[in-house]
Amino acid sequence: MPELPEVEALREFLDEHLAGRVVERVLPLAVSVLKTYDPPLTALEGQRAGATARYGKFLALRIGELHLVTHLARAGWLRWIDTVPDRPPRPGKGPLALRLVLEGGGGFDLTEAGTQKRLAVYVVRDPQEVPGIARLGPDPLAEAFDREAFGVLLAGERRQIKGVLRDQSVIAGIGNAYSDEILHHAKVSPFKLAASFDEAQVDQLYAAVEETLRTAVERAHGVAAGRLKAEKKSGMRVHGRAGEPCPVCGDTVRSVSFADSSLQYCATCQTGGKPLADRRLSKLLK
Predict the structure, then answer these.
(1) How far is the C-alpha of 249 from the C-alpha of 273, rounded, in Å?
(2) Rounded CA gap, 165 and 46, in Å?
């Protein structure tokens, strides 16, 4: 799933390649992709694109007086096209969900792999009309997101810290992958209750959030859209690396599976050497 660093890189890419161009046509190719109907997609045609904004994991493309907003979900992606094929794509065939074509050539495709179709596109007058954006918590890269603000978010949270970091209404933009990386960096168990952190642990976790995300954004800066997925994977220390040695201590990276996801962690670095039980089978080993 694209998370804050990759979506920020896509925002920068679109600012460079899309801003100032005129939209010729927009073709919805998957029935499930479009979540709004007024204004229609055709209202974007003939309009000039402006700046692209990021709201958590949402991209909002300013086109004329409207905004084309997309959330790439778990398996979605934006693929830039320098030369649009002459033959129009066939709806419902393959991963292609939407195509935007620019006057003078070029444009982009929104694609989604797999059978679970969650990629979403909205045409709105204000990005805050998108329910997912309206519910977002603070952006961890925003100037106002300081140590004090972070501490307030954790205070009274009785949930496990892994779930808190992934909750978009608490902090915008962090998903499964970067929450694993942040917790490994901070040497914290993913199942530790957020409210149980002392001041020093909050300091450590806040520093891990900032360093992990800012480093990932720097790594993604200037990377072409088609290479961002590979760049993200190459920068991971524990996420997606179950069975491999931890780059910090050399212990084997372990995994805990859930119904629709999994997490990875290092027992030596994060849980005092104790492996976490698979929660589908037993309670957490504390």
Answers:
(1) 11
(2) 41
